[in-house]
Design a protein that fits this description.
Radius of gyration: 18 Å
Number of helices: 3
Largest sheet: 6 strands, antiparallel
Order of helices and strands: HEHHEEEEE
Number of strands: 6
Amino acid sequence: MVVELAKGSTRNLRRFLRKLNLAIGKCFDDIEFTSLLRSVNSRYGDDYWLLGWKEHKASDYLSLFVLTLIDKYNEEYVVRIYVNVSTISIVLPTNQLNLTDETTGITMLINGNTANLSGRVFCITNIEIKRLT
């Protein structure tokens, strides 16, 4: 019976993460990912409360985000999100830029007639959920 309850609670959290669009295979830029995490408490505070997260860099191409969440029944969970990290870097002439478009998560350096755009992209490879007792 206890095992079934634990499976049910982690299943609900997994559904919640999918609702946030945090699923295996999804990709986000650096700022988009952290903005999504910051929005959890304001948008979904009735269901889950995000206590915090920390990024652990495994290598230049792999990172692990460890999130701590509490549900409405005061059950605490640790969510490990494994991501592949890629870097995008593009050089464009400045006259081809449309600065009215959203450039969230991208660093832009304008040097004369050229603009260097760069940023990190996270692609989720695995998600592990553990309920703390």
